[in-house]
Specification:
InterPro entries: FAD-bd_oxidored_4_C, FAD-bd_PCMH, FAD-bd_PCMH-like_sf, FAD-bd_PCMH_sub2, FAD-linked_Oxase-like_C, FAD-linked_OxidoTrans_Type4, Oxid_FAD_bind_N, Vanillyl_alc_oxidase_C-sub2. It holds the Pfam family FAD_binding_4. By secondary structure, this protein is of the alpha+beta class. It folds into five domains: 94 residues, Uridine Diphospho-n-acetylenolpyruvylglucosamine Reductase, domain 2; 118 residues, Uridine Diphospho-n-acetylenolpyruvylglucosamine Reductase, domain 3, CATH 3.30.465.10; 110 residues, Alpha-Beta Plaits; 94 residues, Alpha-Beta Plaits, CATH 3.30.70.2740; 53 residues, no CATH class. It has 17 helices and 20 strands. The strands form five sheets. The protein has a seven-stranded antiparallel beta sheet, sandwiched between helices. The protein has a five-stranded antiparallel beta sheet with strand order 5-6-10-8-9. β5 and β6 form a beta hairpin. α2 runs antiparallel to α4, α10 crosses α12 and α11 packs across α13.
């Protein structure tokens, strides 16, 4: 994995840029010491590490605006960073750029039950939103497994999902508006507390843009009323294929569960050892299906789901009988990633999405790939919407195992595209999937996406080296931004 070559001009003016940043954010708001910057050298894709030129921690919109204007004028690269939980290297620093940490933007600004929305700063954690409204029986639906740590600004950047997104949608389906700062320092608002906005769907463009278009400084999200009743069903199966076929059959029956997750044997055992969630150990695949609504509706749907599971040879079916038991069932799934960390020195967490009808086929192919590469894989994923999260287990201290794990992961993602799916469901492209983009998009499609970036970021200071496998200057794409009569990169020949 290669990043853009370091810009010597940027490195040469490091001291001046750091001094200018300290003038904007006084006190302890700028980190330039090598030892102190180590905390920012990677995100949750920790296989890749780079020290930035500096880290700046603004505390106001005005400071963010001034920082971006400075970097835009000086052509200094900027990597926005939230909670650092990105699994695709989206907030991997650049050696000739700064990290713009948004951790001080951590306030809940307004809870509006009448309009069923909450206004927060981007550094607020996902779970904190639910905690702020649960006393009135509300919650925020998208719930990544990292919700205790991941920030809502990062959720917007990656269009994050979670175990309850099958029925209630991802971040984009629960986002009402943002305030954001453009690379030239301009502050704009997209959307608001209203249901929808006229004009182009720029809010949709920003959601999942991975820090390439602007820096979010305020977020308005939709909150939902907690269902009257919610019960979870554990279903164990003799094979991954029968578990996958059950998922397709449940959806085909017209049932949209609140959550529908799947785990294979390695993940089941790791989670049960870690959490004691009550998972059966003698099955090859486990489904967790949550059904919500009125008590009568839930009881009826449980009967249908159980019947479907039996048709697919389920050997274990258990329905939660209390809220405590339902929470315990989900605790194992939510803790599956750290649990797998106990059985392997390292792992790569992949993220691809496939049509539900292809689950059994893809799981079988992954078993074959596992044998080919000689690496174990544990599967924990959002089965209901086909969002796979295979965990490839390896030991970075063993020569060549990291490369094999990366090749294994690339083959899984190519398979996802091959069967009609996509490279990512919620983790983003970042650097992890960047060089696989041509397997899904042709050259014209990638160029059109880069033209959109040029419209927001003509100097291309925001998160360069991410998402696009081949960088193009805006001039090369036939789109120029002329500001105050001056062309960017005036030394380039124009055709």
């Amino acid at each position: 994995m290669e990043m853009p070559a370091l810009d010597r001009d940027s490195l040469a003016k490091r001291d001046r840029i750091v001094a200018a940043l300290r003038a904007i954010v006084p006190g302890e708001g700028v980190i330039a010491n090598v030892t102190e910057m180590r905390a920012y050298e990677c995100d949750a894709l920790s296989a890749y590490r780079t020290l930035p030129m500096a880290v700046v921690l603004p505390a106001s919109v005005q400071q963010v605006s001034a920082i971006l204007k400075l970097c835009n004028d000086e052509k200094i690269k900027v990597v926005p960073r939230g909670g650092g939980t990105s699994l695709s290297g989206g907030s991997l620093p650049l050696g000739d750029g700064i990290v713009l940490g948004m951790g001080k933007f951590n306030k809940i600004l307004d809870v509006d039950f009448q309009n069923r929305c909450v206004v927060v700063q981007p550094g607020v954690t996902n779970l904190a939103i639910t905690r702020a409204v649960e006393h009135e029986g509300f919650y925020y639906a998208p719930d990544p497994s990292s919700q205790i740590a991941c920030s809502i600004g990062g959720n917007v950047a990656e269009n994050s999902g979670g175990v309850h997104c099958l029925k209630y949608g991802l971040t984009t389906n629960n986002l009402l508006g943002v305030e954001m700062v453009l690379p030239d320092g301009s502050v704009i608002r997209l959307g608001g507390r209203h249901l929808d906005a006229d004009g182009y769907d720029l809010l949709g463009v920003m959601t999942g843009s991975e820090g390439l278009l602007g820096v979010v400084t305020e977020v308005t999200v939709r909150i939902l009323k907690k269902p009257d009743t919610a019960r979870a069903v554990l279903m164990g199966f003799p094979s991954n294929e029968t578990g996958g076929d059950t998922v397709a059959s449940i959806i085909a029956a017209g049932i949209i569960p609140g959550g529908l997750e799947m785990m294979d044997r390695p993940a089941i055992h790791a989670a049960e050892d870690f959490c004691k969630a009550g998972y059966p150990r003698d099955v090859e695949a486990l489904l967790i299906c949550e059904l919500d609504g009125t008590a009568q509706e839930v009881d009826h749907l449980i009967d249908i789901v159980a019947a479907i599971a039996r048709q697919h040879h389920a050997s274990f079916i258990k329905v939660s009988e209390s809220e405590e038991e339902r929470t315990r069932f989900w605790a194992g799934r939510k803790a599956a990633f750290p649990a797998v960390g106990r059985i392997s020195p390292d792992y790569l967490c992949m993220d691809g999405t496939i049509p539900r009808s292809q689950l059994a086929h893809v799981l079988k192919r992954m078993e074959e790939m596992s044998a080919h590469y000689g690496l174990r894989v544990a599967n924990v994923f959002h089965a209901g919407d086909g969002n796979l999260h295979p965990l490839i287990l390896f030991d970075a201290n063993v020569p060549d195992e990291l490369r094999k794990a990366e090749d294994f992961g690339a083959d899984i993602l190519k398979l996802c595209v091959e069967v009609g799916g996509v490279l990512t469901g919620e983790h983003g492209v970042g650097v992890e999937k960047r060089d696989l983009m041509p397997s899904m998009f042709n050259e014209n499609e990638l160029a059109q996406q880069q033209r959109l970036k040029c419209a927001f970021d003509p100097v291309q200071i925001l998160n360069p080296g991410k998402v696009f496998p081949k960088l193009h200057r805006c001039a090369e794409l036939g789109r120029l931004h002329v500001q105050r009569g001056a062309l960017p990169f005036p030394d380039l020949p124009r055709f």
